[in-house]
Amino acid sequence: MILLMSALFLFFLFFVLALLLVVYERKAGSKRKIDRRLAAYAVEAGINPARMPFVLRDERLSDISLFNRLLSGLDFPARLRLLLEQAGSKYNVGMVLLTSAALGACGLLLSSGAPGVLLRVVVTLGAAALPLLYILVLRTRRLRAFIRAFPDTLDMMTASLRAGHALTKALQMVAIEAPEPVCIEFRKTFEENNLGLPLRDALVNLTQRVNSLDLKLFVTAVLLQRETGGNLAEILEKISYTIRERFKLMGQIRTYTAQGRMTLWVLGSLPLVALLALQVINPTYLEPMLSERFGRTLLTIGFVLQVVGFLVIRRLIAIRYQ
After folding, report:
1. 0.85 exceeded by the pTM?
2. Residues 245, 309: Cα–Cα separation, whole Å
3. Are residues 167 and 263 in the same domain?
4. Read out DSSP for 113-124?
């Protein structure tokens, strides 16, 4: 009962804090101040305020001004913002943190009646970690899509260079013609260079946004060619050929390790499937193990060993090529 009251108190405290932040934002939001100033400037200049472009780079960690100032003094929001940028997410750091806090509070409320403190802690932390896990999944998918489309991007740049265009024009062509997410990242690089940032710095920023070995090889080749000279089109053609050959090699390796990956999923899911089948066939069969403390201890140990075995097999069959 005391735990339930504590969870309800934390939930309502979080709710009241969110309301206060919303009220404060409506009165002193930085984005609204900028919008008002731009609208006033547009009226003075005789421009339609609806067509006024927002040319400032959005460096805010949260749309709530007070929360943004609080996060600006910490270190981890910068890393989380880089992770969001790599995932191509439209949400900011403040939104992710508030969503994690809300899910954690909901998990604490839902698990308040569960036996054992460890289970309540696991449910609460698991619910709070769901937004981060979702962002990591988006980041992995986006990186794989970039890697698959990158050889064709190099071919496009090679054709542009051989047609007599400059490197910046080739970057612009990729930013327009390439598929997502390649076009998005190269568009950012082209715009940074077009707005005055040196090409070297713009390309380095590209490698920070996309953690790809192929991209780093491309950037290194471009920067070395600009310092030492050489045929950049021929260099990019060889890089594209090397990447495609590596794709073929990785496909062969995945074929050779298919049995190990199947063993991983079969051995990992077999105990859980067997427990569920026993529970359906004979519901009273597992009752002594679930009701007795020693039985629950054995189940916990078995679960931990199962997870360890899953990770060991996954480590053995994993081939690092990045």
Report:
1. no
2. 33
3. no
4. TSSSHHHHHHHH
